[in-house]
Amino acid sequence: MSLPPLRHIYGQLRAGSLTATELAQACIAAYASSESHLHAYKTWAGDIALEQAKAADTLLKSGIDLGPLMGIPVSAKDLYAVPGLPTFAGSTQALPGWDKPGPVVRSVQSQLGVITGKSHTVEFAFGGIGINPHWGTPYNPWDASQHRIPGGSSSGAGVSLIQGSALLALGTDTAGSVRIPASLTGTTALKTTYGRWSNEGIVPLSSSLDSPGLLARSIADLAFAFEAMDPLLTGQTASCQALHSLKGVRIGIPENFFWEGCDASIVACVQSAVQRLEAAGAEVVRMAMHGCDTVYEIFQAGGLGAPEVSEFLASCHPEQISQLDPIVRMRVEAAESMTATEYLRRIRVLKQASANAAKIFDEVDVLLTPTVAISPPAVSDLSDPAAYRHANMMVLRNTSIANLMTLSAITMPVGKDDQNMPVGLQLMAGPRQEAHLLAIAGRIEQELGQAQDILGTPPNLR
What we know:
The protein is α/β, with parallel strands linked by helices. It has a single domain (6-461), classed as Alpha-Beta Complex (Amidase signature (AS) enzymes). It has helices spanning 6-15, 20-38, 46-61, 103-110, 157-163, 179-185, 219-229, 264-279, 292-300, 305-316, 326-334, 340-360, 385-404, 434-448, 451-455, and strands spanning 41-44, 73-77, 114-119, 168-173, 188-191, 211-216, 250-254, 283-287, 366-370, 408-416, 422-429. An eleven-stranded mixed beta sheet has the order 1-3-2-4-6-5-10-11-9-7-8, sandwiched between helices. Helix 2 packs antiparallel against helix 3, helix 5 packs parallel to helix 6 and helix 7 (219-229) runs antiparallel to helix 14. 55% of the residues are buried.
């Protein structure tokens, strides 16, 4: 069942030309036909989703409209507390007490959005690769011959969209965890500015950096969902709509940091997109972005996430520590020796870097970089800890800057690399500039094409 954009589905549901039940049935069928070789979900809730969809149809037929997401199938990363569904956070056992939803899930459920299940995550979201040795790693749909990483830590989120078992996905982003899986699976994602959306009801990795985020099939769908869910946009939804033109839009291209060690075919793909945007009227400003190396050095040393997740586990779930994935446990335990002085130093440096980064947007509207610097490696190539660490840092490097510098950010597909895997283009904007960012990204999508037009059909679904 080929489905139109969410904004069109919204109209069809209210016109009666499409029902929420039909949507749910299509998602259930997509799950049944592909989950065995995609492995997107930790907990599938198809029966519950179907009942929710039927309830949405009944209300819509009665003239009761609870909101734009009514009847829309949504997957939720297995960090989100959802009533009636266990929360494992990628660990070996369900976490007690994590069943009360926070504002993000309540926003979906209050509109009678249909939650299809809990998508896989890296254990306690601590990794950008997407691997989970406890429950298995989702398969990247763009390679049918070998098991490539899907990106993490929201590892099942992008896969659920490509699979067709959901039309919107809830993820979280501490250093790139919605943008990396979106980039590697050929979908789109929005990282909200830290603090814009509440982290209540979401198992934490870093209380200082975690941001709820969205993944969708297109920028247009992201804008639709953000309008429906953002508490600050009441009465201002038009601001998320795509710009009519790129003329006068200042796109900053940092020439340092983000391109170092980047796969040549990824560079060529992103640069080709930049040339097309410039031809469409955008003003391209080539520049240096200062402070990236400094904050990334802090990130490589564990950042704020390592000590904060270490404290969370020790205080709230000490029983989980001995059962952690060895790679995760090693990083958690390494943080235990960090001094309070070093932790506070890191906070001070990141705060100053954030203040400096915000000033960049007096000169440009957005910054543009490759989302991920490397093609997704095969899972079998990452069994060596050194290989894992190198790949993990390379997939996280470009995306982590937006978190460390408190920016908003988006990724969108712009082509394929020389291994025939999706390539993502990252846009960053100032703090709380999500609506402006979506408007620019929406116009860029219109210029470059949506994912289906650019990428075609994944080999693993043919």
